[in-house]
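Pasting as-is:
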Amino acid sequence: MTLFKPTEVQKLALRLVKGGAKHILLFGGSRSGKTTVLVMVMVFRAIRFAGSRHLICRLRAKDARSSVLRETLLPALMNTVGSNGFRYLTHESMITLFNGSEIWIGGLGDREQADKILGHEYNTIYFNEISQLSYLAVTTAYSRLAMRTPGCRNLFLYDCNPGSPLHWAHTIFIRKKQFLTGAALIKPELYTSMMLNPADNKEHLADDYISDVLDAMPEKQKARFRDGLWVKADGVIYEQFDEAMILNSADMPAEYDRIAAGQDFGLNITNVKIGWVGECIYVIADYGAFNMTTKSFNDELTARGWFAIEPDGFGFPVYCDPAGGERLQEITGGVKANNSVESGIDFINAKIERGQFYVAAGCTGILSEVWDYCRDEGGEIIKVNDHFLDALRYAIFSDIQRGVIAQ
């Protein structure tokens, strides 16, 4: 049995790998064959280059194992090298091929898992479903694409169902801009992308999948999962946030009545600084890091002049995730935040609706999350890529609850 008979569009996607790009993104609708194409690329590379090492990662290791390993990778190996051609070490989440090559599977959302998989060097790193991965996590993993295997050109591979037009992947691959600065990519030829949609993969789908499943979805989901478009997610919490609320530095206030900040802890550690002018909120700056200690993070903020204060010596409060425990003591000005999630969201939404909420264009963390921050069908907040928005809520709602807003 032959596992993979690529469609004409998938053949075009495979050709991208043979080009000169180092970063290759396949994006588009559901069940369009993106993962299959990239897994087969990785399998062929592992077979061709003996002793090479390759990584497949997504946010959670369990999702990588269930959706990529079991549904795509293991069947691919069974049909290319056979059951005797590889060995899967479940306790390591690693596959060893007959020629000494290795394929690792892991998640970047768990510290222990991240430390394990980022403790090695690779010839290929495949970021699966990057709509769930922060820019910080992905770029931290970049340094691990450093293994030297004769004849093997090292590659980054990516796939996703498109997120919002403010997502970091859209900025880099579609707009050809640097995510953090907005400047043009220095070497745009190293970044290439291609859209694959279910209609391009009809011969591998159930006859009624497109007509009865995808065509029946609500408009936003249909645009994303059928048509592969970059749109706001369905159920966006800050639905009324508009690009007109994004201000260039020259349009931001020169002075603020009061400044505060919010701090979120975790593998993705973030800080967001806000300022008040009357009843208006301005998001002045944000900064984040991946897998950094709290002390090192605070030292970095200090080095960046984050905590610079007025001549009168008055600093500003940094409202920290109350679950942070002793880590609060390592943050300059750190105090416990009010973590009333729904009340905080309602307050921010009210500010947005009244035209009293603005974000500096340089706040790429906030902007990359704001249109992908949403609820599931049961009304629960989807806890993916919300680190900057949690810090934002700590800053805003904790400050207003303390009754210190200038009137």
